[in-house]
Amino acid sequence: MRALIRVLASWIVVLVAAPAVRAADLDELRARGVLRHLGVPYANFVSGAGDGMDVELIQAFAQSIGVKYEFVQADWGTVIPDLIGRKVKVVNGRGELQAQVPVKGDLIANGFTMLPWRQTVVEYSRPTFPSQIWLVARVDSPLRPIEPAADVQQDIARTRALMKGRTVLTVEKTCLDASLYDFGSAGAKVVSFKGNLNDVAPALVKGEADLTILDVPDALVALEKWHSRIKILGPISAPQTMATAFPKDAPKLLKAYEEFLAKAKQDGTYLRLVKKYYPTAAGYFPEFFEGMR
Amino acid sequence: MFRIGLPQFFQRLAFVLLSLALLGYMGYLLAGLYRSRQALQGYQQSEMLRETTRRAQALEYFFSERMVDLAELAEDRELRTYFENRALGMSMRYGLGASLYACSESFADHRQRHRLGASQIYRRILFVDADGRVLVDVPGQGQTRADGEPRDWSAFLGPERRAPLLGRLGTDLVLSAPVIFKGQWMGHLVAWLSPQDVFAHFVGGDDPSRRVTVLRHQGAVIARSEGASELGVEADIPALAALRPDVPVTLSVRDAKGRVEEMRVAEVPVSGTALALVTFIRAAELKSGSLGLLIVMAAVVGVLILLGGVLSVHLQRRALRTTEQLLQSLPSGIVVLGKGRSIVLANDAAGAILASRTEALLGQDWSRFLRKEPSQVRGPVAHEVQVIDALGAERAILLAAIPATIGGEEFQIQTFVDLSDRKQLESQLRHSQKLEAVGQLAAGIAHEINTPTQFVSDSLHFLKGAFGDLQRLLERYREVLARTGAAGEAEELRQAEEEADLAYVAENTPPAFHRAAEGLSRIAAIVGAMKEFAHPGRREMAAADLNRALRNTLTIAHSEYKAVADVETELGELPEVVCHLADVNQVFLNLLVNSAHAITDVVGNSGARGRIRIRTARDGDRVRIEIEDSGSGIPEEIRDRIFDPFFTTKGVGQGSGQGLAIARSIVVEKHGGALTFESTVGKGTTFRIMLPVDGAPARG
User: Do A100 and A49 lie in a common domain?
Assistant: First the structure.
């Protein structure tokens, strides 16, 4: 009975408190007059210095719907709760909503990989950037990059085989979270990196681990910055995509964003930002960017 | 008529010599022109070679720069990163592809940065690895990757090809540079250039009508300037094989229309490449012209000059003729005196005044015509001098002398007018004035005579009446005496009558009164005629009765003809004629006097009488007055001179020779009428006066 009362009480709390933590949809956002952009400084999506591909993209979106832009910096551990107003726990590949937290933003855009568990708690826009998780080593590593096979799963298997007995830098609650890739079964020793994602590659170069994983956009930046210091060994994941995340209860905002994005891809705004922040991406992923002006 | 300066022969000789000198000078100028054109041809050839060399050097520098920047591209950081990543074993799928894409971006940036004017230098840049695989390919805008794709890259590949190479693919120029990484040959960079773009930038701007330039690579034409097609330099020309670097030659080139044209051609190699610039200039542009052509030109120019000279002389002569005609048309006599006062020019008026042919005056001493050298005639102020004409007659002229200097030679221009006419007019004027004065005097006298004549006439009438009364009184005395009867007293009275010759007085006194009255009547008629004849105080024309005027004139002239001729008049009905009546009376008087004199010449003192017949009639808008005499007639030989002033056949002191001249002047010039005559020697002469009724000058 007590248990039943607690459950009922918690439901009542949830129901009563729900309006307070509900994310804002387009009408409310317009009434407020400000679009709050949740972002974690990462790669060239959100530089942390006030610019970045996703910063410029969301600024343009805010302008398109006639509201002011506001950047709300988050971290990988809180960025989703800051969006949906609930803490989230990943259980069996799904996100479980936990305690309420204040909603701090209206959307997440910082090279936010479309992961299955995330899709259970947030709503993604159509993909905005291609990605994949690659295994990266220092140049002096004895490990040789794999010879690509016809099947990416074979490539992943060959790459994972290289990890055995090696330390791997990962970042929890990000696309580089070790839990997403089952490094334990690969025999790798996971080293959780507490710093910013942008600092993972330098940490590798400094020797904080034998290996690290980077998503493709970050890897391209790292290859540019640390050429002759790091090498790509092979893929850890199948090809992924990144997108902008919205609360599930903001369909109008999502729809407005989709319309804006389609237009940006057509009028050249989007590809211009891609070439500005990831000069090689369009050439490296021609299929993804095909059709854009 | 002129005679100034050199004789005509010397003038012609001078003209020929001048023409020859001019031709010689033209020849000298043309020879100079020939030499200068030869020098210009040499200079143009040198300039053509210099200009071609300068352009070839510009191309050499351009291509050397391209080889340098292609060598720099071979050291591109992205390319090196690619090689490093490849050496690390990275696969194209996982990372290495991004490096290669970065290379593409770098190549594209390189291509974008290197420009030639507004266009990019490189049409395409690619990297071919040692296996002949094209790893990076950056085509230009609008260029597909298949453009100029070689089937075999071996021409550009090979570790031994360590130096940049400028080759050719089709019509494109291709630069290639080896890529060396860590001492190992990794492949070649190959860059496409448009030879036409490069050519247009460095060589463009030729005037296609005179100069054409082509760019050759190993003998094949790969770029050409505008106008090459028209000049037949479209394709390769076999004759160019004979070209030697830096040595201009003349080649025959068949143009687009199949015409063969000689062209001056110079080839200058572009150092460091297999390129050469070839410049074509039409040989005609450089030719100095053949000697024969120059001679023809000289002949043409000479002929033109001679024609110009002839034309100039012709124009001068024409101007001279015009001047001469102008001089001839002047009414004044003009003679121009040269050295020694000989006449070098004279006009026809001078000849007429001096009664000589104009040509005969030339060369004569002017002084011989002058009666006395007039010392005072030294300037443009005219003076009257006497000259003796060629016939020896003396006449007065008004002479002015004007000094003139023509061509450094001093002349004196003598202009003069004949004063004969003026003298005549002056004489006529004086005569007219004299007649007018006489007329006025006669009118005055007539007036003075008229008054005493009047009271004499009145007294005569009184006396005549009184005499009649006295006669009747005497008859009464006689009758009374006879009736009273005293014989003694009667006898005494009879004796007194006899002593007084009373019967004679009584018989002859009345006729005496009659004659006196008739005489007075005639005096009155003459006085009246004189008053009307003189017609003083009228200077303008006025309507007049010419029949009455004729009667008056007959009265005035009565004394001239009464002794030798009888006058018959047939005066028709005339309208009043607008005229100067005094002048017309003068004409009638002159003609009547002439007629009387002509009859006198015939009858002399024989007592025979001639006849003067006067007829008047209207003839349309004119009146006709004929005065016919039965005189001696006018001899044929003098008929054309009878109206000349001062011409007379009368003895000295009998005639002034002005009568008919004045009559003609009055009738013809003053009234616009006509004065003619018909004459038969021995029978007489009829003068006919025609006067317009309205006083207007006669027409026709």
Answer: yes
Could you tell me the strand order of the sheet in which B134-139 lies? B134-139, B122-129, B184-193, B172-181, B165-169
Residue pair A201/A195 in contact by the 8 Å Cβ criterion:
no
Cβ pair B88:A145 closer than 8 A = yes
Q: Are B81 and A220 in contact (CB < 8 Å)? A: no
Distance of residue A76 Cα from the nearest chain B Cα, in angstroms: 26
Evaluate whether B96 touches B85 at the Cβ level (below 8 Å): yes
Which CATH architecture describes the domain B539-700? 2-Layer Sandwich (3.30)
CB neighbour burial string for B522-546, b if at least 16 within 10 angstroms, e if fewer = ebbebbebbbbbbbeeeeebeebeb
| Alpha-carbon span A198 to A180, nearest angstrom | 19
| Coil vs helix vs strand at B361 | helix
pLDDT of A81:
95
- CB B91 to CB A235 under 8 A? no
Distance from CA of B190 to the nearest CA of A (A): 21
Query: Which CA distances in Å does B231 have to B52, B208, B256, B264, B402?
Result: 18, 9, 6, 12, 74
Residues of chain A neighbouring B81 (CB-CB closer than 8 A): 223, 227-228
Q: How would you class A179 by CB atoms within 10 Å of its CB: exposed for 0-12, middle for 13-18, buried for 19 or more? A: middle
Residue A286 phi, psi dihedral angles, 5° rounding = -60, -30
**Distances in Å between the alpha carbon of A132 and those of A236, A237, B456?**
8, 6, 177
Give dist(CA B548, CA A53) in Å, integer.
Answer: 143
Q: Tell me what the pLDDT averaged over chain A comes to.
A: 88
Q: What is the CATH number of the domain that holds A101?
A: 3.40.190.10
Backbone angles phi and psi of B352, in degrees to 5: -65, -45
In a domain, A156, yes or no: yes
Evaluate if pTM is beyond 0.95. no
Nearest CA among B570, B698, B571 for reference residue B622: B698
> Using an 8 Å Cβ cutoff, are A283 and B106 in contact?
no
pLDDT-wise least confident of A40-49, B230-239, B424-433, B657-666: B230-239
B614 Cβ neighbours under 8 A, 6+ residues apart: B550, B554, B567, B568, B569, B570, B571, B625, B626, B627, B628
**Cα–Cα distance list, B262 to A185, A279, B208, B240, B280 (Å):** 89, 59, 16, 13, 10
State whether A105 and A39 are in the same domain: yes
Return the SS3 of A193. Answer: coil
**What proportions of chain A, in percent to the nearest 5, are helix, strand and coil?**
40, 25, 35
pLDDT in tens, B255-272: 767 777 777 888 888 888
> What does the pLDDT look like over A79-125, one tens digit per residue?
999 999 999 998 988 999 999 999 999 999 998 989 899 999 999 99
How many Å apart are CA B527 and CA A228, to the nearest integer? 164
What's the domain count of chain A? Answer: 2
Closest CA to B685 of B603, B626, B609, B608: B626
> In chain A, which residues have their Cβ closer than 8 Å to the Cβ of B101?
280, 283-284
Q: Which of A19, A47, A6 is nearest to A221 (CA)?
A: A47
CA distance readout (Å), B166 to B68, B150, B189, B218, B473: 12, 15, 12, 11, 179
Candidate from B89, B90, B98 with C-beta closest to A220: B98
Q: In the CATH scheme, what is the code of domain B330-418?
A: 3.30.450.20
Q: List phi, psi (to 5°) of B681.
A: -60, 130
**Interchain CB distance below 8 Å, A145 and B84:** no
Q: Residue A212 belongs to what domain range?
A: 133-238
ipTM: 0.78
Instruction: Report the residue count for chain B.
Output: 700
Beta strands in B206-274 (DSSP E): 211-217, 220-224, 249-254, 260-270
Tell me the two tokens of residue B444. Answer: 């005055």
